[in-house]
Design goal:
By secondary structure, the protein is mostly helical.
């Protein structure tokens, strides 16, 4: 491999000759070989960085601190990155020291090299457009990086929200298909009262739709940015009015309403919005995991378990037991949810670890948030397409369980009382008799009353 010699404040650095990045990115590439997961895996973050740099350039032009020639070249470079090009030019490990400085400089260097090539320069010359003096003008990592992370989460949220809605739609479609399938409801894994499988699946849809709404409620909080605060929130080295102009431009570029944080010093170190957003992802994960648990339990068997639903057969289930098929899709969703919950704890520790006017652990927060979003998005899509859409009901098995249960006795309590109902239930279990037959035999109800009061569909919809 051939290299070009570049220089930074620490000395000379050999950079791959064709690389769009420069000296500081190359140093960081060597320093932070941690996860093997690079920034290129998080396209929303790269896009948000380019949008932020473009907004800064627009503000600098309007305020007279950037020439129109450099402005046009910088914006053209940013547009290429926003369009999805040059992802390979962001090679840094997602977890790194420096509070995001290496990420910011990676963006500065790539944009400067693209701009310089447009103006007839060469990579690594840092002229006529300089990474710090021009691309990073009026900015600090400490306002650019948090702003870009917040915007990137807003961008990534849209994909996740759409996947949740699609999964909820699939549960609703199955709920309609199972509307007439009566079954036994269960509490604490014990027999409860009748319901329909449609009601059970409709509840899955409802609980997911709740979280779409809750996630959307996070967006205004994520939209409060500290752009213009520069190093610690005082706005040093930014021209008067820069923050307001830059944030307005970023809103226009991104298509999302962003607002200036009320206190830029506080906003430079406070990670509260990320903790809250992570908590919402954890909430979604706990619900998805519970739903996956239910799908596994309801499909258990096929003969020795509940067996009330059949999941699509995804793959052979055993290297030693022929014919065994396991619920691998819900199982993988469970594992994704466990990881998201663990990521939330790491985010909590990182948010707490801030000191004085900055939180140096923000790269871990950004990494875990985007990792959680990506995993949840993928898991939801797999659960939807590979499992839920193909779920089938075993109506006969469900009715068999319902008729063998004593849960229907609850409906007789208003007529015969709790005590007699309890005795009836115990005797029905002991004698292996059906509640209706035993109640009529003992004269507690007439056959007509039993038929009406213990009708499973009526019990599932009592009002």
């Amino acid at each position: 491999m051939q290299f070009r010699r570049e220089h930074d404040s620490l000395g000379s650095v050999d950079v791959p000759v064709g690389a769009l990045w420069g000296a500081q990115t190359e140093r960081a590439r060597g320093n932070f070989r941690i996860t093997g997961i690079t920034l290129s895996r998080f396209p929303h973050l790269i896009t948000a960085l380019a949008m932020t740099k473009k907004a800064a350039a627009r503000a600098n032009l309007q305020l007279g601190v950037l020439s129109s020639e450099k402005f046009e070249a910088i914006c053209a470079a940013c547009d290429e990155i926003i369009a999805g090009r040059h992802r390979e030019a962001f090679p840094l490990d997602a977890i790194q020291g420096g509070a995001g400085t290496s990420v910011n400089m990676n963006a500065n260097e790539v944009i400067a090299n693209l701009a310089n090539e447009r103006l007839g320069g060469i990579r690594g010359a840092n002229a006529p457009v300089h990474p710090n003096d021009d691309v990073n003008r009026s900015q600090s990592t400490n306002d650019v990086y948090p702003t870009a992370v917040r915007l990137s989460l807003i961008l990534a949220h849209a994909d996740l929200g759409a996947a949740i809605v699609a999964l909820a739609d699939s549960f609703d479609e199955r709920a309609k298909a199972f509307a007439e399938t009566v079954k036994l409801g269960r509490t604490q894994l014990q027999d409860a009262v009748p319901m329909t499988l449609g009601q059970e699946f409709a509840a899955f849809a409802a609980v997911l739709r709740e979280d779409v709404t809750r996630l959307q409620e996070m967006l205004p909080l994520l939209g409060e940015v500290n752009l213009g605060g520069t190093a610690i929130g005082t706005g040093l080295n930014a021209p008067r009015g820069y923050a307001e102009v830059a944030i307005a431009e970023l809103s226009a570029i991104s298509g999302h309403k962003l607002t200036r944080a009320a206190n830029l010093i506080e906003a430079s170190w406070d990670m509260g919005a990320f903790v809250l957003f992570s908590g919402m992802l954890k909430r979604l994960a706990t619900k998805l995991s519970k739903i996956s648990n239910d799908l596994r339990l309801l499909s258990s068997g096929p003969r020795g378990g509940l067996g009330e639903i059949r999941l699509p057969a995804a793959q052979p289930g055993s290297s030693i037991m022929p014919g065994k098929v396991n619920p691998v899709i819900p199982e993988v969703v469970n594992q994704v949810c466990f990881q998201v919950i663990g990521n939330d704890l790491a985010i909590t520790f990182a948010a707490e670890a801030g000191q004085l006017q900055l939180n140096a652990m923000e790269p871990l927060i950004a990494f875990n948030l985007h990792f959680s979003i990506q995993m949840l998005h993928a898991a939801i899509r797999v659960l939807d397409e590979g499992c839920v859409q193909g779920v089938e009901a075993d109506a006969a098995r469900s009715r068999e369980h319902l008729e063998a249960s004593v849960g229907t006795v609850t409906a007789l309590v208003p007529l015969i009382g709790y005590g007699p109902s309890a005795e009836l239930a115990k005797d029905a279990l002991r004698l292996d008799r059906k509640i209706a037959d035993l109640a009529v035999e003992r004269g507690l109800v007439t056959s007509e009353q039993a038929a009406e009061m213990l009708d499973p569909m009526l019990l599932a919809f009592p009002t």
